[in-house]
């Protein structure tokens, strides 16, 4: 079937076959982006010890439908990644990257306040997250995943996202995270 | 043509993406990737080894349906026939009728079938449709996990969490048949919770009689309700829900009524009023112990009152259920549960119907256990059983076994064998029908007699053994199919038998001192058995980012075997359900602000009931005028000015009507 398609495609005008477009599950794309945020974010010196694991945490239930788990055991910038599920606010400070399940939206203000002064990269996908002091908010535009990045909140946490990623996201400002 | 080939090839081309390592992709590739449209909840259910279909909120809104029963037309394997403006016959895998008694229907965990006849009064099952999260339909016996009456399937209507229905939603619908006004408001409840309240008024206009006149079957209904969800104080382990509804409905229809008069006529057509009101309150507590372990406790009270020509049915129900999901233990994933239901009714008969017991208290105890055993990483065996004790037939066990083969990420095959029991309904235990003896076709009666047919309290209910086979495949991220086949064998089907003793003229017995009243014991005797088999297929193709096509087809074959002689109406169920049904739904996002839907439905003929095969076309155009304000224009059954969909043989005294073509406009304002 596939070779027939290729054959048929050869007879089509060239404009019909555009750039290769990947089709992925939403959670798969988000999991991939989390990995890239780990890769292209600089944590303050001392917060990332050489060779020590990078802690990726999920606050609340795991919404990734199994797409995030394979990241455990991989390495990023020569550090192994560990994935932890956390339910208590006081445990959140030990994470490098914290994904907040949208169902836990109610506890976000409390969680945010407890992370003040800590270099934890916060990510979620409920609307209003970046506006309320969250750092990375996943959204969806025309069947593509989009990211709003709250630059003020990142700076307040002494985190730096490299230009490679910065130019792909929408940078927003908000006073809340400062 | 090019476009179609291109799209088909793109779909196949994307197979490669299945093997993609998402952690090796560049951020550019990830941001450019297209999201496939499988919702979280449906994805979870799609992994279930059962014939499952999920109608999402978007499906419901885009279908243009103005009621829950109309929305169910899109679900494969579900037979939906509108009898008149306020009455529907809905079944899964056969035995359709307004009094269909083999379905379990739940709204947010509350059972809504009426134990009087084990069926559902669809006219009073309603809410703000925008607030429905999804409708899960499980075809086949779901007895093990779900509970009694799930002989042929479960329809599980789940409303959104209060957190997802914040703010105001006001809408008005106006058309040649329907008028609806609704308002919902959702707000915050302290720091940890949300609530919503709603009110809704609907007016379903008269349909037409086959003969052309006004069918006098309009319905007016007012309802209101609330839902609150909140989390436990400090840690989020505890979730609480408290919700309730109340409604008041008035409707009418024409009915043939017996006349106890010697010269005849022995029946006449009379208008009948249907007055119903009721309410319910439900509380639920869920405690999560870990990601895969939780405890749920749920309880509700429900009151219904329904008054019509033949009888008045008043009922209060109390129900409490608990369920515990153990964490994964080695190869075992176990869920256990138990429940108790108390129901008290008060029935008032009429000159045409009486009851052996006019008031009854019923207690039903139930429990279930289910274990999903991981045989190896790709094979799963789920064993479960429901146990129930009810006053009519005592203790019953309803076992269920399912084998699942997860071939790969996008491919799954399953098979199942289950046994389920339908509890006899209150009518089957206690009903007396009083008819005029010597009816049409027979010799004219020489004395005026009435025939009192009495239910058989010894009736043991129906049993079904069901065998299923299914296969599901995500061919590409944009193309998926789901196919399920089944074979069901039913035993002890209730039939109505006139048991005429030899030598007796009509075999009637004098009742009391009134020589004009006779009584005749009749079934349900449970001496008929039936076989059904069928295949249901669905396919979904996301043809373009802006165009989704979904199609389904179902085949249903029923054979009824009658062991008894003199059975009345035994052939009816075979011919009440269409052999073929198909539908096609095209959902097109024309632009950012305009959406368009077209839905075709095909239903084959019910020959013996003079219902012709029918092709129905519904269309909907939605226009987002500005943020929060939307206008929908919907046309239903556009190809025919009127359609005769159903005659209910189980309630044949209700006059058949034609359903009019319906066109309406709807304005929705969210603020």
Strand content of chain B: over 45%
Radius of gyration of chain A: 19 Å
CATH superfamily of chain A: Response regulator
Tell how many strands the DSSP assignment of chain B holds: 40
**Alpha-beta classification of chain A:** alpha/beta
Strand order of the main beta sheet of chain A, please? 4-5-3-6-7-8-9-11
Examine the coordinates and then state which fold CATH places here, giving the name of the CATH topology of chain A: Rossmann fold
What characterizes the major β-sheet of chain A?
8 strands, mixed
* Percent range of helical residues of chain A: 10-25%
The outline of chain A comes out as globular
CATH C-level name of chain A: Alpha Beta
Q: Major β-sheet of chain B, in short?
A: 22 strands, antiparallel, barrel
Number of domains of chain A: 1
The CATH architecture assignment of chain A turns out to be 3-Layer(aba) Sandwich
Poorly predicted residue ranges of chain A: 1-21
Q: What is the β-strand count of chain A?
A: 11
Structure description:
The complex is a heterodimer of chains A (178) and B (671). With 178 residues, chain A is of the alpha/beta class. Chain A has a single domain, classed as Rossmann fold (3-Layer(aba) Sandwich). Chain A has five helices and eleven strands. Chain A has helices at 2-10, 26-39, 108-114, 151-156, 163-166, and strands spanning 23-24, 41-42, 54-59, 75-76, 79-86, 97-100, 121-124, 136-141, 144-150, 160-161, 170-172. In chain A, strands 4-5-3-6-7-8-9-11 form an eight-stranded mixed beta sheet. In chain A, β8 (136-141) and β9 (144-150) form a beta hairpin. The longest helix of chain A has 14 residues, at 26-39. Chain A is globular, with a radius of gyration of 19 Å. The N and C termini of chain A lie far apart (57 Å). Residues 1-21 of chain A have low confidence and may be disordered. Chain B is mainly beta. Chain B has a single domain (2-223, 233-252, 267-670), classed as TonB-dependent receptor, beta-barrel domain (Maltoporin, Chain A, Beta Barrel), CATH 2.40.170. Chain B is 7% helix and 58% strand. Chain B is built from eight helices and 40 strands. In chain B, the strands form six sheets. Chain B has a 22-stranded antiparallel barrel. A five-stranded mixed beta sheet of chain B has the order 2-7-8-5-6. Chain B is globular.
